[in-house]
Design a protein that fits this description.
Oligomer: single chain
Strand order of the largest sheet: 1-3-2
Strand content: 5-15%
Number of strands: 3
Helix content: 40-55%
Number of helices: 7
Length: about 170
């Protein structure tokens, strides 16, 4: 359960190297780039926030699979893209009705959004860059909550994270 966490670490190190050599990515806002001295923790926090998390610690907790499901963790916005907002999906405050909706609708997927849940059509997952991950989806029975902490979840989180960070360029 370290694929996505390791990817975030690697990208933070690459960002730090670029910033220290004077190369500022276009997506970095002006106020953020005014720092005199960049540290790895700054880059980790920036990339975690761009991935939909509050900060680096939040990203590491969720992506590592260490969050306990019994306290309804905040999954952040990793599994959401603005382009998904125009799709008609079913949103739920609780997991149980979301799971029932997933079982009633063949081909849909259940994804977390902060402390809520969305049951969405396959186009939603395509917009997250997950269309190539059909085996992982099948092994999770299309349910990212029930499959949280598994290798398939980690693979999907890695694909979604890469898609989000690659779109920053």
């Amino acid at each position: 359960m370290q694929l996505a966490v390791n990817e975030l670490k690697i990208r933070a190190k690459l960002l730090l190297k670029a910033l220290r050599s004077g190369h500022r990515p276009d997506w970095l806002s002006g106020s953020q780039s005014l720092r005199d001295e960049w540290q790895l923790k700054d880059c980790q926090t920036l990339l975690a926030q761009k991935s939909g998390f509050r900060d680096w610690h939040h990203a590491r907790l969720i992506l590592s699979g260490e969050a306990t499901r019994d306290v309804s963790p905040d999954f952040g916005e990793l599994w959401y893209a603005r382009a998904c907002g125009v799709l008609i999906n079913q949103w739920f405050a609780d997991y149980a009705p979301a799971r029932q909706a997933l079982l009633a609708e063949g081909g849909s997927c259940l994804l977390p959004y902060k402390r809520q849940f969305v049951v969405a059509a396959p186009l939603y997952t395509e917009l997250l860059g997950l269309s190539e991950q059909t085996l992982a989806w099948h092994s999770l029975n299309h349910d990212l909550i029930d499959g949280y902490g598994t290798p398939a979840w980690d693979l999907l989180a890695l694909a979604c994270l890469c898609h989000k960070l690659d779109s920053l360029k």
